[in-house]
Every structure is written in structure tokens, then in C-alpha cells.
Amino acid sequence: MRLVVLGGGESGVGTAILGKEKGYEVFVSDFGKIKDKYKQILTDNKIAFEEEQHTESEILNATVVMKSPGIPEKVAIVKKLVEKGIPVISEIEFAAAFTKAITIGITGSNGKTTTTMLTYHLLKSAGLNVGLGGNIGKSFAWQVVEDSFDSYVLELSSFQLDGIVNYKPHIAIITNISPDHLDRYDYKYENYIDSKFRITMNQTEEDYLIYDADDEAITNWLQNNKTRAKLIPFSLTKMFEEGAFIKDNTMKVSINQEDFKMETEAIALEGKHNMKNAMAATSVAKLMQIRKATIRESLSNFQGVEHRLESVLKIQNVQYINDSKATNVNATFFALDSMNTPTVWIVGGVDKGNDYNELMSLVREKVKAIVCLGVDNKKIIDAFGDVVDDMIEVNNMNDAVKMAQRFTEKGDTVLLSPACASFDLFENYEDRGNQFKQAVQNL
């Protein structure tokens, strides 16, 4: 049994360690450089690896291949594996076979990290023996080796779901769907939507699918396709006998003939989109039979997620907000929608086929100036050049923050919400967010 792992990052190294423990002959291959800490771990575990190349003779003799989510299907080596009929799966698929723990799988274009962290917070605070993994934190496969959790809360990207065959979460959540990563889906939105719904494809009548009933892409899919899972909707506008909704500034969650109520202002998270995240997480807590008092307390003390509408500092009565995690238009829509003061907006990066028209009414209403932070800002300038009074281009974070400050008056907000990927000027969105926070502190 030969396991080949493509990609020597967190998920790849975790899978390699699990594979070795389960008796596979393991080989790790990364077309880029492998970080020193991971190389050390592979060496310590006597796992063979290569970097900056893919040696076909070492890869095409695999029994099974785990492909890291960042590697597209279009890559030559992946195509050759598929042609040879060698299974190419994700870490989630590989690791799930080796654990009896139940999993709560959470996907969506936006809100999945907040919902994942909040769900984990609810279950952990209730004393459950629960792990956190997937697209976040420590590799799921690695935890299957080292820990013995009864349940896992997993954040799942569409790329991870593309690589599943038999995996099924006991509880699945789809937070919302909006166009994202279309470059990986032949620029077909329906392919991306289908990819998200793979989360429910193996679910049975014993399992649950929690979903946003206000989301057009989700409701259309459910009208035209079947899932065997029990459906639990949540909504800001509709009411359900079974599901979650908001009425009279109160969140109500009804599941298995039991009701839970909480005033929305007592919930630590703010903004309409966060009420949805709270409804989804609370639905899980109810399914896991967590006490009402524990749910209330956890919802009221949750700290939120770094780089997601994170308040950094107030300087000369101007609030600086880090929303670096907003890597698509829909996430930035939520951010702008929650602004209550005149806003200087820092935007830009690697465009993933964005349609900025969706933001037009919010920009007209809320944005006084735009700072473009990217290598190529043409689309942003074309979209908003005539809409705002002031617009400037910069190519590093310090300049972005300094220029933003110049446009502000007392009572304004400076919002970093890029709507784009970060790879033109930064390592990743965390690096971008941390540089923003540092630049603000240096003002």
C-alpha cells in the first residue's frame, strides 16, 4: 500500500503521519519549497519527501494519492494520476476512514470560519471532547493520530470537498454560496455550487443539513436536487416550525420539539451575517443536546475571528477595522453593509473574477475614499473611479494606512476589506491583516 502526498503543508504532513501509522509506505512531493518545520517533522518520522519537483516514477506507482487543497486538478501530474485510474482524494476523505468520531462539516463562500469557531466554542464550553480542524488550525489527519476526540468541527473548503468519496458529516452546514474561486471551476458558477453540495452527498436520514434559507443558490439547488439528510433551515426573514429565525430582535431555534430563544443584542457577534452564523452554530448545539444556559453564555462571550471585521484601534476618533479575511466580493459586501460611519476603504489584490457592481449601492452610500492596494487595480478604478471623491493607488501596507488616514475626519472608519486574494503583495490574508495592524499601530 503506497500513499503519495502532494503538498508538504499542514494537511499534507498530517496525512503522511497518519498514513505511516496505518502501515502505508509514504512519499511526500511538493512542487514548491517545504517549510523547515515540516521538513524536520517528516525527517523525524522517517518519511521520504522531495521539494521543488514532482518525480513521476515516485508518484505514478501510488495506491492512493492525497492532494493538498491548493493544488488544482488541471496540474499535469494530477491529470496523469487520473488517467491511470489512481484515486486522488483529500485529507478529509483519507482521515475520516480512520476515526469513529462524528464530524460537523461546515462549508460556504463566507462565514464558514466564524461559524466553525463559534460552533467549536459552543461545544467545547459545554465540556464536549471536541477537536477543530479542516481548513483551519491543526491538520485533521494529524489529530486522528495524536488525539482521541469524540467529535470534530471541520471547516471545509470546496477544494477539500472535491476530493471526498465516502466522507459524510453527521451534521453539515452550508452558510451561503456566492461566486468564488471560479478560476478553479471553469468559470461556471453551477460547478462551484455543486462542489459545495458534495458535503451532503453521502448523508443519510440519520444526518442533518443546516442551511441558509435566504440564499438563492442554496434554495434553488435543494428544489432541483435530493439529499437524504434532515433539513434544518435558518433565515432572517422567514419563520419555521423546525429551524432558526429572527423575530422581534430575538433569535429562535426550534429543533426536535425544543425551543431556544435569545435576544440578538445579547449575542457578542454583530451584523446581520453574524446572526446567521449564530443561528447555524446554535442549531448544532441544540442537535448535540447542549444546555440552554451554556449556549447563552457561549454566544454572549465569543470573541470573534482574527482578520474578520476585527477592531484594531481608535486613533483621533477614527476606528480602524481589519477584514483581511474578506477575499471575495460577497464578504466585502457584509463588511460595508455593517459600516455605520463614513468609511475609507482599502481594497485590492489578486482578482478572482470579481463583479464589483454588487457593491455599487453600498459604496455610494458609505464610502468617502478608496485606497487601492494591489499590483493591478484597473477593475476597481474602472468600477468606482466616478463614484467616490478620492481614490489613490499604493503598493504596500504602510502607504495604504498612511494615505487612508489622510482622507479621514473624526468619527470616520478605515476598513481593510480587500475583496481579493492576497498573493500579489503578501504571503496570505493573515500576513496582510497582520501588516495592517502593525501599520495602524505605527501611526
UniProtKB/TrEMBL annotation:
Reaction(s) catalysed (UniProt annotation): UDP-N-acetyl-alpha-D-muramoyl-L-alanine + D-glutamate + ATP = UDP-N-acetyl-alpha-D-muramoyl-L-alanyl-D-glutamate + ADP + phosphate + H(+)
Residues annotated to bind ATP: G108, S109, N110, G111, K112, T113, T114
GO molecular function: UDP-N-acetylmuramoylalanine-D-glutamate ligase activity
Tagged with keyword Nucleotide-binding: yes
Domain Mur ligase C-terminal: residue ranges: 307-420
Keywords on record: ATP-binding, Cell cycle, Cell division, Cell shape, Cell wall biogenesis/degradation, Cytoplasm, Ligase, Nucleotide-binding, Peptidoglycan synthesis
Subcellular location: Cytoplasm
Family that this chain belongs to: Belongs to the MurCDEF family.
Stated name of the protein: UDP-N-acetylmuramoylalanine--D-glutamate ligase
Organism expressing this protein natively: Flavobacterium frigidarium
Gene label: murD
